[in-house]
Amino acid sequence: MDFQIRDAITANMIGNDASQIRDVVEDAIKRGEEHLLPGLGVFFEKWWQTAPEPEKETVLKHLEQTFKA
């Protein structure tokens, strides 16, 4: 992923509260447009870099369940 995308998304999100961030995430998912996926990836990356290990484990278990065949 291009670092310019990371920087632009980060700059656009600075100062947003939880409600605004939720709106961005839900709008991106609702639209279902592929070009919005990198933005959601940046959200996940930022969270992953700061999340405590127990939170990461919880999310990983949820993802495991979500992607079970």
From TrEMBL:
Subcellular location, record wording: Spore core
Induction, as annotated: Expressed only in the forespore compartment of sporulating cells.
Gene Ontology BP annotations: asexual sporulation; sporulation resulting in formation of a cellular spore
InterPro entries: SspI
Keyword line: Sporulation
Short name of any one Pfam family annotated for the protein: SSPI
Family statement: Belongs to the SspI family.
Protein name: Small, acid-soluble spore protein I
Gene name of the encoded protein: sspI
